[in-house]
Amino acid sequence: LYDADSSNTSCGIFLNDIDIRTISPRWIREQICLVNQEPQLFNLTLMENIAYGSNAYPVTMDEITDAARRVNIHEFIMTLPQGYNTIAGPRGSYISTGQKQRIAIARALVRKPKLLLLDEITSAMDLENERRIQNLLIGLPQDYTYLLVTHRLVSTTQVDQTLVISKGRIVESGSFDQLKQAKGIFHRLFCPEET
Q1: CA 115/CA 54 separation, integer angstroms
Q2: 131-150, pLDDT tens digit by residue?
Q3: What is the pLDDT of residues 48-81, one digit of tens each?
Q4: Where is the ABC transporter domain (predicted)?
Q5: In the CATH hierarchy, which top-level class contains the domain 28-152?
Q6: Residue 186 Rama label (left phi>0; alpha psi -120 to 50; beta)
Q7: Within a 13 Å sphere around the CA of 44, how many CA atoms are in the beta-carbon half?
Q8: What are the residue boundaries of the structural domains of the chain, listed by start?
């Protein structure tokens, strides 16, 4: 894991006020799930790809289909001749990037992580599926924390806190409305016609 400055105990990365250097890296990895814009699928069935990585307990078919429904991929899977037993192909090559993204999000939902890291997860989705994923994130239980990295500023309208990063530094933070009213970088990016 990243070590900010091992000689200085006042700085670093903290999880619920606990310095992560004092926590088992394995435990931390079990609490975190990453979904990126080009998710990795395996040459396994779609069912196995959704269940993949959930080592804490056996995943039921009901959990798999529930997660698939929540990300709007279930109906597509059911149109395939072998349904959930369809092989995704090497690196998921038999399905589109948008479908891979939704399967990866379903995989994350099945894992039930405490921290969900989402990097440009709707980049290859149509507007309908993007909205569905945004609504899904808004409706996550309170014990979920998710970090959304996006260039689509409209994706930040419903999040609790938005951080604007420029040249590797946080330059603004606040809710969507606060940042829009502040007339700073976020406002200039979101409303270029007003600048």
Answers
A1: 14
A2: 888 888 777 777 778 888 88
A3: 999 997 767 789 999 999 999 999 999 999 999 9
A4: 1-192
A5: alpha beta
A6: alpha
A7: 13
A8: 28-152, 160-195
Tokens of 8: 């200085």
Query: Which pTM value belongs to this model?
Result: 0.81
DSSP for 84-142, written as a single string: GG-B--GGGTTS-HHHHHHHHHHHHHHH--SEEEEESTTTTS-HHHHHHHHHHHHTS-T
Instruction: Return the exposure string of 47-65: e unless at least 16 CB atoms fall within 10 Å of the residue's CB, then b.
Output: bbbbbbebeeeebeeebbb
Determine how many CB atoms are found less than 10 A away from the CB of residue 98. 17
CB 76 within 8 A of CB 82: no
What does R_g of the chain's alpha carbons equal in angstroms?
A: 19
**Positions in the chain short of pLDDT 70:** 1-10, 55, 193-195
